[in-house]
Amino acid sequence: MRLRGLLLAASFLALSLAVPAAQAEDRFGIVLQGGMLQPRDQDENDESGTEFGLRFPVDTGTFFGFEPYIYMGDSDDTVIGSGASAGTYPGIELTSWGANISFGRLIRPKGFRVYPFVGIGNNTLASDAGEISKVGYNVGVGVGLSPGRFMVDLRGERNFVDVGEETKDWDVYSLGLGLRIDPGF
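Given the sequence above, the corresponding structure tokens read:
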């Protein structure tokens, strides 16, 4: 719980430092994303599922972007074996929130953009076997287009969470639709 508070405080601090430095007309955005979640190298959970969430990109006026996010997803049950020896492992439900730093601007007045990003967040993994909540990391790349006030982007990312004896990792492939916002200050 203390780590969650520190992460949240760090996110708000970074946001408060980023906003005064912004030079672009549109400093903020809101993006609704949805797509596919694919667990990686997990014998008990290898079926894909869906994910959806919100991202809040902030233009820092520099080469770097800042982006708080929250998303949720789940994966389907995995069947191992066949016939009488078949077993079913329940899928997982995932809730993740945190912040990304992009190398390249997330909000651009108009045009095409490519941006690699890294992030840190709190990840809650829940299944019939129980629930764990751990800090995890993500790395990915996005491509986007900003016609007018709207934003459209495609992303691929890999997420990693150390759960003790192993690392749970999964890929997220998503489409985001968003709106650039000028707060007027």
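The two ends are 35 Å apart (CA to CA). Try to locate this feature in the token string yourself.
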